[in-house]
Design a protein that fits this description.
alpha/beta, 2-enoyl-CoA Hydratase, Chain A, domain 1, 3 domains, eight-stranded mixed sheet, six-stranded mixed sheet, globular, binds 3-hydroxybutanoyl-coenzyme A, binds 1,4-dihydronicotinamide adenine dinucleotide
Length: 698
């Protein structure tokens, strides 16, 4: 195996060049290479300084995350940092690309840091449920003060070189080849007889109100623990001598590393990358994408068009008439003004996107040259088929015809065209220019190249794309329907919608299911219940108390009244006093004696319903792997990232316990709680969903 750290000499300067693509993670071999390189440089009496530099696109992206959870291997990163800092030679870090986590910790252990103007530094460990574990919490505050260190560490954000210079994290910024820049800097320092500057020798940061900082970090983290632990580590840097502070950091780091939260977040880190890697698409070249068509400029069509414009695609949007076309243009311009306000685009880009890149038309003839069309008209099969018929007639051969339908059968839509191999589902989430998830729904006849192009579009739009099969609701909406029902059942049995929302935000969801229902519009569920009523199984329990509110014209946030009451223009809400009365009336009618629920039971039932349906989705091949389902819930449904997703959560609870609960719940409602065969099989075999992920497929 080639050594990932090369050693070379330029006059009195030794160069340790890290070559561990793609991002120079600090694997055991890299740590060993750096340690050996330091030994070699120190053994040569002609060497006065060492420059550490990265090859390729980054200085160092941090510890090698693939090594977490395996037995630690020497040299340990903390010891390597101490070894570098304690070297009698002058050690310089020349930084380009990113220097993250352990990468910045190595740099902080050197005596001088020089960075490219485009370089970025950060300690993103909190995004993995961790905190810096090789001195980051001890050295950074000695350079920046406690408040700035806490902000950088608890946000995990990437700091640009100029800001890093202002904060004292880097000493110089210079453009050029990183190795040449580093060597020239080292030569200058030698010539100036510059002293070794040892960060751990600097005075400790002044104290701040530590409890307030801890409380603030916990509040922002919404149930995630590591930002709070990071504050305590910085506190130790201020209150304890350096070596004792390092010990405290280590203890807190190990505590976090062994937590379920870091397991969940590391699962999320790898799988948000792995999810778009489909073995069957290896070697399949996607079709070219320059111009796309969007049919319908309502909520979704306008959002999809905005996302495409921001990704530098030409967009032709079709509406039914002049008035609708104007409304669509206004929606898109509104979305783009948001991007302008947030500094994502300049005024010139805004002007170019709205004039040159966007065409809004009423005639389908304008679609003759587009490479891909996304239909986002009303959720009605007859309307969709009519649209696809027109698209089939006007679109050029090879153009991809996609539907953004939430529930409808893509096979049936495809069959209504003369080119079913070119038809696919591209299911975006609202608001489509903001939400990260894209379900790529593959129908029976969809060609591999069309699937590959769907994923390519997702990548261009900055989405996390997940492959889904055809069924009612695909992956996400199908599972949503089931856990929503579990919540409704609990309301019938005695838990209030407000307790349920509170229990689930306490678990880490961004919003509870009833607040979400108000946001999405209660009319959607009402219509669905009416549509499904004729075919309903007699054992199916469906609460209808909320329909009474709909009958009075109250549809949630948009009308100011739903489960909650909304003051005009405000997002904050108060419980609607009509709701308990409506629930009580229905309970009386159904002869239900309401009972108490603990928050714990609410979470357990909700999660078990989600896991059971998610397992069925994997079992039926609608999702390729359990982790695909996890990413759908994480990026489309506000599932707390620190649990990794519902199936990771299930693994962490232990599958036998989850299955036992499902069976216990089934004693009262066997119709709803039918255990997934896959879940039963995994429990029988003593295996986990993670085993299926590793296997690559079920
Ligand atoms: N360890 C192992 N693999 C890593 C890695 C790391 N630290 N960082 C990135 N990778 C892998 C990715 O998994 C991906 O692999 P794949 O191609 O097989 O999917 C590959 O490198 C490229 O990564 P991206 O696709 O994310 O490339 P980008 O250019 O978009 O982003 C990045 C690069 C900004 C470095 C991003 O990968 C990133 O944020 N990485 C994580 C950085 C991090 O969290 N560092 C802290 C680690 S914890 C630590 O250091 C603990 C210490 O304090 C003790
Ligand atoms: P919407 O009602 O806001 O917009 C639909 C638009 O389509 C209207 O502007 C209408 O004028 C236009 N339209 C209707 N028939 C047309 C035709 N023949 N040609 C051109 N334009 C036509 O609906 P929304 O919410 O944007 O939903 C659209 C589709 O996206 C539906 O299939 C829906 O299920 C799906 N979807 C909706 C999500 C949501 O959160 N709203 C999320 C994901 C998918």
């Amino acid at each position: 195996m080639s050594v990932p750290v090369s050693f070379s000499v330029n006059g009195p300067v030794a160069i340790l060049r890290i070559q561990n693509p793609p991002v120079n993670a600090l694997s055991q071999a890299v740590r060993q290479g750096l340690s050996d390189g330091m030994d070699r440089a120190e053994a040569d009496p002609d060497i006065k300084a060492v420059v550490i530099v990265g090859d390729g696109r980054a200085f160092i992206a941090g510890a090698d995350i693939t090594e977490f959870g395996k037995p630690p291997m020497e040299p340990f990163l903390g010891d390597l940092c101490a070894r570098i800092e304690g070297s009698p030679l002058l050690v310089v870090a020349s930084m380009h690309g990113v220097s993250l986590g352990g990468g910045l910790e190595i740099a902080l252990a050197t005596h001088y840091r020089i960075a490219q103007p485009s370089a970025r530094v950060g300690l993103p460990e909190v995004h993995l449920g961790l905190l810096p574990g090789a001195g980051g919490t001890q050295r950074l505050p000695r350079l920046t003060g406690a408040n700035k260190a806490i902000e950088v560490i608890t946000s995990g954000r990437q700091v640009k070189a100029t800001e890093a210079l202002d904060m004292g994290i880097v000493d110089e910024i210079k453009e050029g080849d990183p190795q040449e820049v580093g060597v020239a800097y080292a030569m200058d320092l030698i010539a100036a007889a510059a002293p070794r500057r040892v960060v751990s020798d600097l005075p400790a940061a002044d104290p701040i109100d530590w409890n307030a900082a801890h409380e603030g970090a916990l509040q922002k983290a919404r149930g995630q623990l590591s930002p709070g632990a990071a504050v305590r580590a910085v506190q130790a840097a201020s209150e304890l001598p350096f070596d004792k502070g390092m010990q405290r950091e280590r203890e807190l780091f190990m505590e976090m590393l062994q937590s379920d939260q870091s397991r969940g977040m590391i699962h999320a880190f790898f799988n948000e990358r792995a999810v778009s890697n489909l073995p069957e698409l290896k070697g399949v070249t996607p079709r070219a994408l320059q111009a796309i068509g969007v049919i319908g400029g309502g909520t979704m069509g306008a959002g999809i068009a905005t996302a495409a414009l921001l990704a530098q695609l030409q967009v032709v949007l079709i509406e039914t008439g002049e008035e609708q076309a104007n409304a669509a243009r206004n929606r898109i311009e509104g979305n783009l003004s948001g991007a302008l306000k947030r500094g994502k685009i300049t005024q010139e880009q805004f002007d170019a996107l709205t004039t040159q890149a966007l065409t809004v038309a009423v005639s389908y003839d304008s679609l003759a040259q587009v490479d891909l069309v996304i239909e986002a008209v009303f959720e009605d099969m007859a309307v969709k088929k009519e649209v696809f018929g027109k698209l089939d007639a006007v679109c050029k051969p090879g153009a991809i015809l996609a539907s953004n339908t939430s529930y409808l059968d893509i096979d049936e839509i495809a069959a209504s065209t003369s080119r079913p191999a070119d038809v696919i589902g591209l299911h975006f989430f609202s608001p489509a220019h903001i939400m990260k998830l894209l379900e790529v729904v593959v129908a029976d006849k969809t060609a591999a190249v069309v699937v590959a192009t769907g994923f390519e579009l997702g990548k261009r739009l900055g989405k996390i794309s997940v492959r889904a099969g055809v069924c009612d609701g695909f992956i996400g909406n199908r599972i949503l329907a089931v856990y929503r029902t579990a919540a409704d059942h609990m309301v019938l049995d005695g838990a209030s919608p407000y307790q349920i929302d509170r229990a689930l935000t306490g678990f880490g969801f961004a919003m509870g299911p009833f607040a979400v229902a108000d946001l999405a519009g209660l009319d959607i569920g009402w219509m669905t219940r009416k549509r499904k009523a004729p075919d309903r199984h007699p054992e199916e329990r469906v609460p209808t108390y909320i329909d009474k509110l709909c009958e009075q014209g109250h549809f949630g946030q948009k009308t100011g009244e739903g489960y909650y009451l909304y003051e005009k223009g405000q997002r904050a809400s108060v419980p609607n006093p009509k709701i308990p009365e409506l629930i009580a009336a229905e309970q009386a009618e159904l002869k239900i004696t309401p009972r108490e629920f603990t928050d714990q039971e609410i979470v357990r039932r909700y999660m078990c319903a989600m896991v059971n349906e998610a397992a069925k989705v994997v079992e039926e091949g609608i999702a390729r792997r359990p982790a695909d389902v996890d990413m759908v819930l994480l990026f489309g449904y506000g599932f707390p990232r620190y649990w990794g997703g519902p199936l990771k959560w299930a693994d962490l609870q232990g599958l036998p316990a989850v299955l036992a609960d499902i069976k216990r719940f089934a004693q009262d409602d066997a119709w709803f709680w039918k255990p997934s065969a896959l879940l039963e099989q995994l429990v029988a075999d003593g295996r986990s969903f993670e085993d299926l992920n590793r296997q690559g497929a079920k």
